Amino acid sequence: MKEYITKTGSGNIAVDDTLLTKGIETTAGSKILSGFVPLFSADAVERAEKAGYTVAGKTNVGEFGLDLVGEFSYYNDGDEILHGAAAELIAKGEIKGALEVDLNGAPRRAAALSGTDFIKPTYGTVSRYGVIPCACSGEQVGAAAADAQETKKLLTAIAGHDGKDGTSLPAESYDYACGKEIAGMKVGVITQLFDTASEETKAVIKNYAEKLKALGIAVEDVSVEEISAAQSAWQILMAAETCNNVSRYDGVKFGYRTPNYKNIDELYIGSRTEGMNLLTKATVLYGSDVLSKGRYFTCYDKALKVRRVVADKFKELFKAYDALLVPACGKTEYKKYDIGKAFETVYEESAYTAVPNLIGIPAMVTGGVQLMADHFGENILFKIAESAEGTDK
Amino acid sequence: MKYEIVIGLETHVELATESKIFCSCGGHSNHGEPNDCVCPACCGMPGMLPVTNKHVVELAVMAGLMLNCEINRCTTFDKKSYYYPDLPCAYQITQWFHPICTNGLVEVETKNGISKIGIKQIHMEEDAGKLVHDDWSDTTLVDFNRTSVPLIEIVSRPDFRSAEEVLAYLEKLKSIFRFANISECEEGAMRCDVNISIRPEGSTELGVRTEIKNMSSLSSIERAIKYETARHMDALERQTEVLVQETRRWDDIKGKTFSMRNKETAADYRYFPDPNLMPIVIDDEWLAKIKADMPASPEEKAAEYRELGVSDKEIELLISKRNLCDLFDALRGKGCAVADIVSWILTECAGVLRKKGQVLDELRISADKLARIIAMTSSNEITRGAGRKILVAVLDNDVDPDKFCEENNLAAQGDESLINDVVKKVIAENEAAVKDYLGGKTKAFQALFGGCMKQLRGNGDPAIIRTQLENELAKLG
Amino acid sequence: MDKTTLDGLLSLNELRLTEEETESVLGAFDFMAGKEKIMDGIDTENVEVMVHVMPMNNVLREDVREQPFTRESLLEGAPEHTEDSWQVPRLVK
Known about the structure:
The complex is a heterotrimer.
Chain A: E1 13-16, H1 43-50, E2 55-59, H2 85-91, E3 97-102, H3 106-114, E4 117-120, E5 140-145, H4 148-158, E6 186-190, H5 191-195, H6 199-214, E7 218-222, H7 227-245, H8 264-275, H9 278-290, H10 296-320, E8 323-326, H11 342-349, H12 354-359, E9 363-366, E10 369-372, H13 378-392
Parallel strand pairs in A: 1-2, 1-3, 6-7, 6-8
Antiparallel strand pairs in A: 3-5, 4-5, 4-9, 8-10, 9-10
Helix pairs in contact in A: 2-3, 7-9, 7-10
Chain B: E1 3-14, E2 52-53, H1 54-66, E3 70-71, E4 74-75, E5 78-81, E6 91-94, E7 101-110, E8 113-126, E9 130-134, E10 139-143, E11 150-156, H2 163-179, E12 190-200, E13 210-215, H3 218-238, E14 246-251, E15 256-259, H4 262-265, E16 272-273, E17 280-281, H5 284-293, H6 298-307, H7 312-318, H8 322-333, H9 338-355, H10 367-378, H11 384-397, H12 401-407, H13 416-429, H14 431-438, H15 443-455, H16 462-476
Parallel strand pairs in B: 13-14
Antiparallel strand pairs in B: 1-11, 1-12, 3-7, 4-17, 5-6, 5-16, 7-8, 8-11, 9-10, 12-13, 14-15
Helix pairs in contact in B: 2-3, 8-9, 8-10, 10-11, 13-15, 13-16, 14-15, 15-16
Chain C: H1 3-12, H2 19-39, E1 60-61, H3 71-75, E2 86-89
């Protein structure tokens, strides 16, 4: 069974297993990638190393990062990793930070549940070169650390233009300093996401809102009717893109090959069936269906249009609000669940995390809550988080 | 009943670029060693992202312009999914929704006259790898060298009515693309899918259509069309079988088409826009630049050369390859006479290459250097033989003509008294030839001239030799 | 979603499911059918699709050849390979 770090060696950051590390086995939590040793490192990993960080090792993820709840990795060995492996190490103080791929909010949830910080930056600001791909149109590499200051430092190290990623934005680097005064900012709480959360989670949000008010920030409720449609749209886009991206794992070129085959079809079907879990399979099958001839225009095309409507809606919202305050997950505690229900469970949980992936806006988890801002609004998020953390002390 | 054949073509053409369409590997369809032009992306490994090769876009636009297409100012890439071992990611990046060129027209000439063939669209896409079936190990070997090599696919309208038109069209595409350096169009670099149906003459409805996939030689295409036409006719006339819309392959050895497995043809390719590739916008400025860089068509060039007095046979040789036309034009720009240019390219250069086992296609020479050789010979600074020696040295080692001439003492001997001595000596030693000449056999003059030139090691100034020889012989007569 | 359509999808994706898994996946499809309907509430008449969330045009590279990876290193992790090629069961008999 694959070895993951549980304690720091000489390094100070962890890299999640959906990011390639040269010479170190990288599997995205899947059996089908067992034995896959990348020939190059992700751009984010190289940048972090250039900035003086050292890689302590790899951390486990739910297969391909699809499992938002974080349980279903082939390398899970029976243990639950409900909180996310990297976030736990940060919470324990074993490592300074972590680089994690945010496909569907799994690292945001992990940070919220372990009381650490994580930021999914604006789409295109951190290179996706070296990300094991699922949904290229919305996944981003983010930075995790114990507090907002350290998170900002790590994000500053990894963000910037990369010619090897055709969606990488042109800025060579980003300065997350915020010129705006904290007092006088305005934050909206999306009622649709607040109302569905557990009482404990509501309390966490309320508590955070109080802290913001104490800092002179105006907090008010805001209704965003499009939230559920956004969640549905992201599931459709994510499943379709994932289906397409994981189709490359077939037992021919690298990774796992079934021992039982006599012809190419048996090789393909055996390797893929044995190599991927039920959640991945359900995602692939659903994603394949929404792209099929009869369904493309009513479903996939519709989701691409809903994406624009949602993006426009949030542009409007950010004219009125500096940031939006929402839960990162519906509950404060999770129990082990059956993989036969994983697809539905993950979907329900994605309500809180889908929008930033769908429309590329930055989202930060801090103090157990999630803050969202407009594109390039990371500086606002860091400013609020740092100020709120300051009041903690 | 009389029947009419209706054919449409999908022609894949490999573009002449340095690197692949979405990664920086080299490689093309006829590469020697398997898998020596591959990177992690070519073999389906996760993590690398596609970035489009700019030159591919420019060549596709050029192809569109040459086939009279509309150039779509905003064009995008899509993904097409299916499993086959030669497709490492199980998807191909192609253009489904917004192809780069649409609505073109090509005129082709056959013995029956000129026919107009509509072009529905041209799109860019990546090629798949190659499979080699190995008898020894009873396995199939996968070679990804051709993976992601840039292609354009030219989709014609169903405007062909005979195999002859199809062949004329393909020959025309080849000549245009080779001439414009869009594609080398070597064996295997141009492949066709042929859609064919037949219908009673005069009918406007299309018959049952079959598609014959992936043929690269013109003779296979011709034979496959003839076979398939006969099969359709038999089915309609004699009810030999019921025709179904299907994809077939051509077996060149058996001389037959055969139906492909159902699984391959029933595929739903599930096209969707590739989120990794941003739209390509071709604005007026870029389009103007591509147009400016675009060479004249072979026809335009031929007309231009005819005007200059070049013979049809010579024109045919020159316009077979763009590099020869470029050289011709450059030499003209440097003031060389048309007759000299034609003879130095088609006689002298071709001769030197032939000795090296090469053809004119492979001619790579600096126009400056060849112009200098032509200038030196036409001004009698050197003899034609010396010029030839310099040409060999330029082609072999890219030497400087003037330096090489000086170092090897190739300048024509213009010393009149030296030449006079030689002329007298040759006359004295060749009594028979002198007698012939004086007896009226003018050909003998050439022998004597050659004798003088030989004595002067090929470097004698031909004009001076000629005059002196004539004078000395006149004294004897 | 019915069993026949699902079989078609399984074939397209080179996958197999146990009976129990089939039930689970059919359940997921039913579940999503309901979720897709939510999108009907959004008026997308005259709305352009949004493929890229941060729009850019003409991200292109120059036509330059590079070869930083060796064939040996790429073949190293292959389940089955010869000296120079990946290997699969013979496709054409």
